[in-house]
Design brief:
Blueprint lengths: L1 H21 L3 E4 L17 H7 L4 E5 L2 E4 L3 E2 L7 E4 L2 E4 L6 E3 L4 E4 L2 E4 L7 E5 L5 E3 L4 E2 L3 E5 L3 E2 L14 E5 L3 E2 L1 E3 L3 E2 L5 E2 L2 E5 L3 E2 L30 E2 L7 E5 L2 E2 L1
Parallel strand pairs: 1-2, 2-5, 3-6, 4-7, 5-8, 6-9, 7-10, 8-11, 9-12, 10-13, 11-15, 13-17, 14-18, 15-20, 16-21
Antiparallel strand pairs: 19-24, 20-23, 21-22
Length: 253
């Protein structure tokens, strides 16, 4: 009887423990953290570990700051991941990039640069996943670029993405240098899909600025070389301005 009950109790305990870990949908992270991520007093020590902890969807809270010394690749996820709080320090060389693996929102955080980041820049590459800059995003980098598709040439560890996928970028706050609806960089590929860019707030700027028309939907049909059909918004937006939404449709080469 005892031999039968003991394995059952062990299996039950393991199942309950797994359920408890899966229910942890909010994790904390901070430079120098050595904890399990369950609280601000016990943060994880790397963004990679934090992303792995919420790979089924959840929220990552930066207690004070987290330094990214290597390009960040999110695990593939269907449910949304939110990154919030503190400072997100891009300290990579030569490419300061964050690659999405699913729908991701950045909110209530500062995008900063570290001493190894000589270009003082950052790039978020959505890889055809929904990308949102939520409320209260600030930047101290000189350049922040949002890419809806891919940055070419692809990073060595990247896998190709279906060429008929749509892109979706939403900007609610923050200062952004450029928004690229599809892909950026050199190469040749035929892409078919729709690029959706919605701007509800924040500052989008270049050296030469122009205001994006209100409630205007732009359509672009035909074939173009990869790297030339970039969907960019160059505008400085204020709270008085209505939301902007632009979409690109058609075939792209």
């Amino acid at each position: 009887m005892k031999k039968t009950v003991l394995p059952f109790l062990l299996a039950l305990f393991t199942a309950l423990l797994s359920i408890g870990l899966a229910a942890l949908d909010t994790v904390y992270v901070n430079d120098g953290g050595t904890g399990d991520g369950s609280s601000a007093a016990s943060p994880l020590g790397s963004m990679t570990a934090a992303l792995d902890a919420v790979k089924d969807g959840g929220k990552i809270i930066i207690s004070e700051s987290i330094t990214l010394d290597e390009p960040i690749f999110e695990p593939t996820h269907e449910n949304a991941i939110t990154v919030s709080g503190g400072q997100l320090v891009f300290n990579q060389s030569p490419h300061c990039r964050w690659y999405l693996g699913g729908p991701t929102t950045f909110e209530n955080t500062t995008v900063a640069y570290g001493e190894k980041n000589s270009s003082k820049s950052a790039m978020i590459v959505a890889r055809y996943n929904p990308l949102t800059l939520g409320q209260k995003v600030t930047t101290s980098v000189n350049t922040l670029i949002l890419v809806g598709g891919c940055q070419y040439p692809l990073y060595p560890s990247e896998q190709p993405v279906a060429n008929d996928a749509d892109t979706q970028i939403t900007v609610n706050s923050g200062t952004v240098t450029a928004v690229i609806g599809f892909t950026r960089g050199s190469g040749s590929e035929t892409l078919r899909g729709t690029s959706h860019i919605t701007v509800n707030g924040g500052n989008l700027h270049r050296r030469r600025q122009r205001r994006a028309p209100s409630e205007r939907q732009c359509q672009n049909h035909g074939k173009q070389r990869h790297g030339h059909r970039r969907h960019r918004l160059h505008a400085r937006l204020g709270q008085r301005n209505p939301a902007r939404h632009l979409a690109h449709h058609g075939e792209r080469r």
